[in-house]
Request: fold
Amino acid sequence: MTKKKPLILITNDDGITAPGIRKLISVMQKIGDIVVVAPDKPQSGMGHAVTVTSPLMLHPFSSENRHPEYSCTGTSVDCVKMGVKIVLGRKPDLIVSGINHGSNASVNILYSGTMAAALEAAIEDIPAIGFSLNNYSIGASFDGFEKYIEKICLMVLEKGLPPATCLNVNIPDLNGSEIRGIRIVRQGRGFWNEKYDARTDPFKRNYYWLTGFFENVDTDEDTDIWALNNNYIAVVPVHIDMTSYPALRQIEQWGLDNFN
Reply:
């Protein structure tokens, strides 16, 4: 008897025509039966936004491939919800998001639509992985590390993930032969040092562009930042429970439970 192929839902936040998702599709075709539901336009930096004040639309997307593809007028999280509840009508075996144009290591995960899609899957207890390349250019090369993506996906399908957990996978911007391997690491501590560039339009109205640069404040060798900087693919298990358990125990000592 032929073994049934896993059903894989693919999405991203850069839009359905982005080179990153096209590469991810080509890799996933080797693993299972795929369905694509992705935003009809870029949704980067939208985090876990969900569309609630306007209707959503799905449009069949024509491609050279034979698998079903749909563009969605919403966010990457909307795409997961619509993909599971409308297009598939059931939970897939795996949801993959990406390949994102740009790193989602460290604090970037909080802003990332790519990882929001994977976290939405984790909320639904669907195994999920977000893939990102440490190159923000639309012309970035996504060649040379396909075997690593395939291996990680096959291991998740075989071994599963803990409940409410997904993987954040960040790939260094290197030729595949230069990648030193895979590291299972934690999220590094860092932040964006930001400012707003103030400008004036032809009608004398002020407007602002957000600018800034990322600062790493974590030099330990068990972080995603260290792994990327040292030519490793960084794999971080991410849980939807955002409770700070050390702070929980500390704040319990304040005695607020006895206040009335």
About this structure: The chain has six helices and eleven strands. The first strand starts at residue 7 and ends at 11. Residues 244 and 250 are 10 Å apart (CA to CA). Helices lie at 19-28, 76-88, 113-123, 146-159, 224-229, 245-252.
